[in-house]
């Protein structure tokens, strides 16, 4: 009944987990929800004020499909300041979040049967969008005991004559891992030799906790600029998920193609959002620093609390706001075979909502968003540890 392309694509696991938590909440339970893929902070005041001012000034009509030039230029200026690269207005296009940025790239670049390499554990939207346009995701696994490091040789080994693009996500959702400059360089060189596109999802670029060399934009621009797409977003950096603002930075011919796609589908992103995002990108960055510092404290605490349990192993994330513990040591008890079973039982027994690793191509893991108050993190950690403890006697019994 529906188009064939939908047969390949799965719904978002994160949204499903959030919906299950919401159902319990509506039934009157105090749920601790760690499924959120978004900041718990409000949008900064000066950003909200710019949005309100846009409404009052009747800035409520269509804009150019690619967005207002002031914001495109402000993004170029921010990248110049942050990465030392020169970008023209014609290379920037505004999208309804990083999601549309990546989807524009998929629509403009991938034909039926094209292979697109990415690394796992991944944010599910990345491979699902590839499938939606008829491409074939080629997945290169990374390992927790190596800090989820992406090995350039593994990516390069996955290249075939059908490879059209390589998608890198750094900081990575769900692992919090980073791809540093030294890792990216050989990948870029191999791609440049073969004319393969590199798409970098930098949606969490302002959320990096440790001083890792992460000027991926410069590496790409120096070596492979004519086949590079950067997907950026105001969502996580500026606590603006609901405003829907992202962008692509890509060669001007490809940006023109994005403009055609967007012009025939969604047109411009909300005019009001554009004014708010302009204030976010070009105004004070104090709120960004405040949020980063707060996430760092939360990361340190939740990581320490959970890893106090001997069966919970967890790499300390370097970026984004997710903890990605390996809980496979707790499986086996009470018919709980998978992390999906674990997440379900944790929700039912302790009313803690987490996202199971299966959705990220990582069975045995859980994704815990620490974009939550310290109070909720403490309470949630207590409940998770209590749940883990409750499994131990059953496990001991099971093994006898
Ligand atoms: C890795 C990654 N990229 C991109 C996005 C897109 O976010 P948005 O469309 O709100 O900019 C997300 C959101 O969760 C994400 O986790």
Give a structural overview.
By secondary structure, the chain is an alpha/beta fold. Mean pLDDT is 95; it is low at 396-400. The protein has a seven-stranded mixed sheet, with helices on both faces. The chain has a three-stranded antiparallel sheet with strand order 9-12-11. A two-stranded parallel ribbon has the order 1-10. The chain folds into two domains: 4-42 and 286-392, Aspartate Aminotransferase, domain 1 (Alpha-Beta Complex), CATH 3.90.1150; 45-282, Type I PLP-dependent aspartate aminotransferase-like (Major domain) (Aspartate Aminotransferase, domain 2), CATH 3.40.640. The radius of gyration is 21 Å and the shape is globular. The longest helix has 26 residues, at 374-399. Helices cover 44% and strands 12% of the residues. Helix 3 runs parallel beside helix 10 (271-282), helix 7 runs parallel beside helix 8 and helix 11 runs parallel beside helix 13. The structure holds pyridoxal-5'-phosphate (PLP). Pyridoxal-5'-phosphate binds at residues 37, 97-99, 123, 169, 173, 201, 203, 233, 235, 241, 246. Pyridoxal-5'-phosphate (PLP) binds at residues 37, 97-99, 123, 169, 173, 201, 203, 233, 235, 241, 246.
List descriptors.
400 residues; alpha/beta; Aspartate Aminotransferase, domain 1; Aspartate Aminotransferase, domain 2; 12 strands; 12% strand; disordered C terminus; binds pyridoxal-5'-phosphate
């Amino acid at each position: 009944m529906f188009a064939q392309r939908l047969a390949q694509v799965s719904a978002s696991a994160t949204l499903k987990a959030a919906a299950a938590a919401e159902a319990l909440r509506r039934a009157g339970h105090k749920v601790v929800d760690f499924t959120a893929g978004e900041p718990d902070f409000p949008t900064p005041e000066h950003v909200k004020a710019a949005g309100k001012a846009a409404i009052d000034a009747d800035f409520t009509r269509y804009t150019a499909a690619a967005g207002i030039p002031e914001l495109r230029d402000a993004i170029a200026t921010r990248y110049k300041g942050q990465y030392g690269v020169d970008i023209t207005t014609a290379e920037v296009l505004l999208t309804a979040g990083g999601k549309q940025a990546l989807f524009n790239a998929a629509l403009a670049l991938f034909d039926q049967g094209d292979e697109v390499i990415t690394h796992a554990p991944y944010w599910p939207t990345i491979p699902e969008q590839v499938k939606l346009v008829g491409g074939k995701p080629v997945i290169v696994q990374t390992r927790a005991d190596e800090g989820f490091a992406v090995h350039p040789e593994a990516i390069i080994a996955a290249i075939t004559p059908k490879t059209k693009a390589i998608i890198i996500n750094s900081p990575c959702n769900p692992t919090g891992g980073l791809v540093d400059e030294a890792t990216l360089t050989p990948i870029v060189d191999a791609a440049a030799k073969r004319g393969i596109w590199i798409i970098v999802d930098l949606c969490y670029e302002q959320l990096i906790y440790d001083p890792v060399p992460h000027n991926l934009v410069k590496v790409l621009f120096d070596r492979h600029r004519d086949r590079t797409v950067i997907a950026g977003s105001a969502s996580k950096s500026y606590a603006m998920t609901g405003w829907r603002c992202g962008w692509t930075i890509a060669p001007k011919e490809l940006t023109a193609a994005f403009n055609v796609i967007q012009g025939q589908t969604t047109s411009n992103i909300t005019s009001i959002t554009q004014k708010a995002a302009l204030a976010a990108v070009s105004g004070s960055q104090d709120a960004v620093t405040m949020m980063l510092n707060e996430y760092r404290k939360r990361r340190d605490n939740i990581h320490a609390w959970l890893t106090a349990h001997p069966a919970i192993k967890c790499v300390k994330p370097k970026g984004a706001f997710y903890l990605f513990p390996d809980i496979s040591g707790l499986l086996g008890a009470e018919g709980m075979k998978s992390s999906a079973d674990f997440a379900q039982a944790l929700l039912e027994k302790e009313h803690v909502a987490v996202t199971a690793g299966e959705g990220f191509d990582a069975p045995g893991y859980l994704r815990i968003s620490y974009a939550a108050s310290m109070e909720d993190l403490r309470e949630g950690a207590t409940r998770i540890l209590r749940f883990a403890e409750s499994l131990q006697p059953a496990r001991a019994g099971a093994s006898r």
